[in-house]
Amino acid sequence: MSYTDKVIRYFSKPGPQNTEATLEIAKERAKELGIKDIVVASTYGDTAFKAIEVFKDMGVNLVVVTISMGFEDEGWIMKPEVREKLTRMGAKVLTCTHALGDDVDDAFAGKYGGISHKRVVADTLRRFCQGMKVCVEITLMAADAGLIDVNRDVIAIAGTDRGADTAVVIRPSYTRKFLSLRIKEIIAKPL
Q: In which domain, by residue range, is 31 found?
């Protein structure tokens, strides 16, 4: 029998208080596995700036995925000056339609009822935690935009509400080939 022992960091509570620890443990795992693509969710830029600092000397492809502009009315979007600063610091910043919802399907479901396959996938991933759903979603979005290679593993980092509390190793896929995506390791998540 062949197996690998691995440590998973479980946080007692979800939330932004876990951001630094999540980023650090993700960095260590990236070093161990030789992973050079890091995908980070960041609504306002705070988590992205912390990720830039943590991964600065590793020569990684840091992709920051923001919430879609469809949430502008709620005030949940990244300001243009923050996006520009992140880009100047070397991050690739992506804003687009969410891979697992908040799209045309949801517009019709909201008006007429019903549910999409994307919503089922999103709700299933949320059984692990909110960050797990977001990790998968941002990886799909980054792949669709051509910002990561689907033929090599990435580390995706996301969280619950603000900050980061979840990190996973994923073999990406394009959204249209979702069934090829593989969550290979859980690095950290809230209980």
A: 24-190
Residues written for the chain: 191
pTM of this structure: 0.94
Contact 49, 93 (CB under 8 A): no
Higher pLDDT, 161 or 140: 140
* pLDDT, the chain, mean: 94
133 close to 170: Cβ distance less than 8 angstroms = no
**Residue 7 CA from chain centroid, whole number:** 20
Q: CATH no. for residue 63? A: 3.40.1380.20
Inform me whether the pLDDT recorded for 115 exceeds 90. Answer: no
Q: How many helices (H) and strands (E) does the chain have?
A: 6, 7
